[in-house]
Structure formats: C-alpha cells, structure tokens
Design goal:
The structure is a single chain. This protein is of the alpha+beta class. Helices cover 36% and strands 16% of the residues. It has a seven-stranded antiparallel beta sheet with strand order 1-18-17-13-12-9-8. The N and C termini lie far apart (51 Å). The chain binds 6-diazenyl-5-OXO-L-norleucine. The site of 6-diazenyl-5-OXO-L-norleucine (DON) has 15 residues, from loops.
C-alpha cells in the first residue's frame, strides 16, 4: 500500500513539476535572441545559408524535422519576412531555382506584375518629365506581390511537410518579437523618416529611438501569416488580407485591385543552361536578365581566355569590365517580360554573336560608352538571397526582394507587412535610370499584368549530374556581376567557398561609364593603370551579399557573406 501511495505522489509531483517548467519556459520567451552568426559551416545532412541567423536556424530545423530543401526554403522565406523586413517579404517577389533529387531543374518566377490600371506613362508629368519618387515610394510604386503564390506553388509541387508547419516558425517570430542586430537598427533608423511620412506612427517599424536592444514585434503580421497558414494562397489574395491591401491602396492613391490580387499567378519556367568545362550552370530566364547576362559574360570570358590572366590584375579587370559594358548594353535594349516582348535569347547567347561583340575590344584602352548622364548608384543590399540543400540532393537557390530597402515603405494597415516598390524596375521612360542606374527601352516598358525586368540571378551549378554549388546575392544591377565573380573564383581560381565569397568585387554596367570597386580591396596601382586606359573609376562601400554552398564528395560547405549578418548553418 505504501508503495502505491508513493507511486501516486511521484506521479503528482512529476505533473506539478512539468506544469511549472512549462509555465516558466513560456514566460521566458519574450522575444527571440539572435543565435551566433557563423560564416562558414559544413555538414553531411543539410545546409542553409541566409542573410539572417534566425532564418538559417529555422531552415535547419525544418530539415531536421524531415522536411526537404523546398520545405526549408519556404519556411526560410516566411521567416525572413519577419526577421529581415528590409528585404524578406510577403509583399514582394522573386525567383526560386529548384534542382530536385531526381535530376530535374526548374525556375519558379514569382516576380510581381504591373496592376491592371497601370499605364506606360504613369510616372510622367504632362510635359513628359519624371514625377519625383512616384515609382519608388508609396502606393503607386507597388507591383502586385508574388511571394505568397510562389511559396504556395513550390509547396504544391515539391513540399513534403504540411504547409502549416512551414509557417509556424515565422508566426512565432512575429508574435514574440525578435531582438534586432545593430545593422538592422541602423537600416530602420535610416528609413524612419519615410516610413513615418507614409504610414504615420502606427506602423510596426516606428519607434522613437531605435537601439540594438530593441525588439521588433509584429502582431498584425502574425495574424496575416496565420491566415496564410490556414487558407494557403487564398489567405493572402482573397479575404481580409486582400481587402486590407486594397483599402491601403485607396487610402494612398494606389491602383492595385482585388482583381489584380485574384489574378496573380507565379509561373514555372525553363531555366537557361550553360555548359563550361565540367560544369553545367542553371540560371533564371527572363523576366530576369540575370541568366542571359551571366551566360553572355561566361562565354565572352571563356573565348577571351580570362583564365590565363593573373587574378585582379589590370588586364583581368579591364577584360571583365569591357565584357560587362557590352552585356549591359544588350540588357537595356533587348530584355523584358517574354510574355509581352519577343526576346532574341538564342541570338543573344550565341557564341559567334558574342565573339562579334568583342571585335572592337582593345586590350590597352577602355571603349567609351556613349556619354549620357546617369543616375546616382545607390548603396544596395536590400534584396536577399538564400540557399538550401538536403541530404537527398534536393537543392534550392532563391533571390527575393521588395526592391529598395523596405520597398515602397508602405505598410498594409491591419495586415502589418511592407509592399514592394518593384514598379521602378520597369523602364519608366527610355534612357531614364532607375534606382540602380539601369536604363531600359521598349522591351521593358510598363504594361498591365507585365513583369518588370529583374537582375536577380539565383544559380545552381551541376558537376556531372550532381549538384555542385548554389549561389546568389542581392545588389540590384550588381547582382549579375557578383554572381559571375563568385563562380569564377570558385571554378576558375580554385578558391575555397569562403574565399570566393569574401574576395573584393568590382562592377561595370555600361551606363554610367565607370568601374565600381569595393573600397580598400583592390591594388591602387592597378586602379591607376585602369584610369590611364580611359576607365571611369568609382568606389562603393560593399557590393552584394553573396551566399554560397559547395558540395564536394557528399560534404556540404556553406559560406555566408561577411558584409552582413549572413549566416551558414549545416548539420
Ligand atoms: O529585381 C531586381 O533586379 C531588383 N529589384 C533587385 C533589387 C536589389 O537587389 C536591391 N538590393 N540590393
């Protein structure tokens, strides 16, 4: 009998103890702290590299729960919308490259579209001058968001875990809040004035004086994510979230309608493919310019024997810059949404055409781009890239964006998320540069339902039939040239993944007629000799935030960019 009593007491004690621990641990979660930021990681079972340590942690957790790389990528995408609002989003769009373990490679284009009420001249005054800030700030700058439909379609086709499981971590982050890193505090502080001007004080990103000890809690966003979790794509494109987007539009003279939201669909596209030596490179087709431009650059540099030149010598930088000048001139003229404009892709990547492009290349002198005034090149790390690979060999490379930092700065009232300012990626007037100094023409003019031209270049590289590397970066117009340089570092220079990411970068985009260098990372004598050859020179704080995974003999090596809070995590 005594024994029975003891057993009962023990059971009670155990119950009381468990409840106390539960209550205590619930009380402890007042916000999510930032996990340690690791730049280099290796693993045999999975690897996730993202711009934020919380997102990398969440991606890893999903893999450990038995999710595949696509599941983890979806969870990371939603997590970034909460913990990295400068670029992570549900109000923007992007491109997802997927290589599945069965050997298929696809591109999911969830780029935003122009609203039905948009017109080619919508950002011009009557006298055809450009309306100040109209394509970059506030409701009129927003394209119809693609991210939620993109994640939904990726899950429908490839997902293994339940959809709700992939949203759960993001919902928690939004509900409990996150501790901000000092980089995010700076970014939010810089955006305060515009966020305040557009939304007033009742927006989650407003706080009198941001400090790094501040937490960011987003209760409205948590409600929106719950709705998406319960109802899938319809939780965003229909119902109260869609109504909130439309009423926010009305309040701010925007034009996105319920029909725009209902009609939005992400599209599966065939990737562009380039074989170079042992490698096969898969990259996104239009409406991203990234794939065409990357392939053009790789082929020109192969034909010109870049591999025979010393790394970052005058001759090396001159050749790459001259190739970039010609490729970006093609971008401005020929690229746009293929559903609206016939793009001569085969001709653009044809090797004899590319050889002819370099026929006027002078190894000793810069070839001047036509002189035309161009916009100021802005500091740009406001898109985000992430890579995921799982043990079965499914691999995902994603670049997603709101375009500028915090997009249009317009928060959807009651739904708590930022909308993009992607309309600025259209050519709003021929020859007029966008936020990234890029110019465009007829191919990329605004038309209802059309996708604006992008530079996003999430890339997958195979060696044989196995996934060898995943790479991508933010950086507006510099995305393509940063991806190019990282691929060259890895495959041609034989650098380690981390060296490939860390190495200094430079960039030319035809107009302005200038080579941009990351300051302090290049030899001054080399830069002087480039100046003497006739190159314009400018410096830039940091170019891109590259995330890279390399897989060698079944081991996965992750490398996160030291230029940000980026974090590689594997197991
Ligand atoms: O799609 C594009 O090319 C641009 N909207 C990307 C913007 C970007 O990368 C900004 N951040 N660095």
């Amino acid at each position: 009998m005594f024994q029975k009593l003891n057993e009962l007491n023990l059971k009670k004690l155990f119950l009381i103890l468990s409840i106390t621990i539960l209550i205590f641990s619930c009380k402890q979660i007042t916000y999510f702290d930032i996990p340690p930021i690791t730049k280099e990681a290796s693993g045999q079972n999975g690897m996730v590299v993202t711009a934020h340590p919380l997102a990398s942690t969440i991606g890893n957790d999903i893999l450990k729960q038995g999710g595949n790389a696509i599941d983890a990528a979806i969870a990371v995408h939603f997590a970034l919308a909460v913990c990295y609002p400068i670029a992570g989003n549900i109000g923007g769009g992007g491109f997802m490259m997927i290589h599945s373990a069965d050997g298929k490679t696809e591109c999911l284009d969830y780029r935003e579209t122009a609203p039905l009420k948009s017109t080619t001249d919508m950002y011009l005054n009557e006298d055809k001058t450009v309306k100040k800030n109209a394509s970059t700030l506030g409701a009129l700058s927003c394209g119809v968001p693609g991210s939620v439909d993109g994640m939904w379609q990726a899950h429908q086709k490839y997902g293994k875990l339940e959809w709700e499981k992939l949203l759960a971590p993001a919902i928690k982050l939004a509900e409990y809040g996150i501790l901000l890193t000092s980089r995010e505090v700076n970014a939010l502080t810089n955006a305060q004035e515009e966020l305040l001007e557009i939304n007033g004080k009742s927006n989650p990103y407003y706080i009198e004086n941001w400090k790094s000890s501040n937490t960011l809690t987003q209760s409205d966003l948590a409600l929106t994510l719950k709705q998406i979790s319960e109802k899938g794509r319809d939780g965003f494109y229909k119902g109260w979230v869609a109504d909130s987007i439309v009423s926010t539009m009305h309040r701010h003279d925007g034009i996105i309608s319920l029909q725009d939201l209902n009609d939005y669909r992400a599209k599966w596209r065939k990737p562009l493919i380039k074989r170079i030596g042992d490698y096969t490179i898969y990259c996104p087709p239009p409406p991203s310019s990234g794939g065409v431009a990357l392939i053009q650059l790789l082929e020109i540099l192969r034909q010109s024997n870049l591999d025979s030149l010393p790394y970052h010598s005058t001759a090396y930088i001159h050749l790459v810059a001259e190739a970039e000048r010609r490729v970006y001139a093609d971008r401005a003229e020929h690229l746009g949404d293929p559903d609206f404009y016939k793009i001569p892709i085969d001709s653009l990547i044809d090797s004899s055409y590319l050889a002819s492009r370099m026929s006027n290349f002078n190894p000793l002198m810069a070839t001047p781009s036509d002189s035309i005034s161009s916009g100021v090149f802005e500091e740009s790390d406001q898109t985000t890239h992430f890579n995921v690979i799982d043990a079965e060999g499914n691999a995902v490379s994603v670049t997603t964006t709101l375009n500028g930092a915090y997009g249009s700065k317009l928060v959807v009232r009651g739904a708590g998320f930022l909308l993009n300012n992607e309309m600025d990626d259209f050519s709003i007037k021929p020859g007029v540069p966008n936020l990234y100094g890029l110019v465009g023409s007829e191919a990329n003019k605004i038309e209802p339902k059309k996708r604006m031209l992008s530079s996003m270049t999430p890339t997958i590289i195979l060696k044989g039939n196995k996934c060898y590397a995943l790479v991508g970066t933010p950086g507006g117009s510099t995305i393509i040239t940063s991806v190019l340089q990282t691929i060259l570092n890895l495959t041609q220079e034989g650098f380690t993944p981390q060296e490939s990411v860390n190495s200094g970068r430079f960039h030319h985009q035809w107009r302005p007629d200038t080579i941009f260098f990351e300051s302090g990372t290049f030899n001054e004598e080399v830069i002087d000799s480039l100046k003497k050859m006739g190159h314009g020179i400018a410096y830039y704080g940091a170019i891109g935030r590259v995330e890279l995974i390399e897989i060698v003999d079944g081991l996965m090596y992750g490398a996160a960019d030291p230029r940000g809070d980026d974090c590689a995590m594997g197991y």
